[in-house]
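pls read this protein.

:::
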Amino acid sequence: MGKKGKSSGGGGADDGGSGGKSKNKGNAAKVRHILCEKHSKVMEAMENLRAGTSFDKVAEAYSEDKARQGGSLGWMVRGSMVGAFQDAAFLLPASSVSNPIYTDPPIKTQFGYHIIMVEDFK
């Protein structure tokens, strides 16, 4: 079904414990996301990703926040992201916009539905 989107889910199976780093991923992630208020719109974006469209192009077309420039949020440090978003980001492996590994299904936060990918950790 989803050929690229391996899911971390963000379901909380790994809540990160108290303190400590997660699997040598450091304390910062270079994050991109696609944010949509409506579930139907984020699922349209997901279909485009599954069809092979690059993450930055889908973000430009669908994301409803300031990260429309390819969905880039830049370097985000642990503790600066909302819970479910942060959990998902630090469970994902690093990948590229042309061959992204992203959250599938999207992650729900108070801001809407996010499809998240991480380009790097430090």
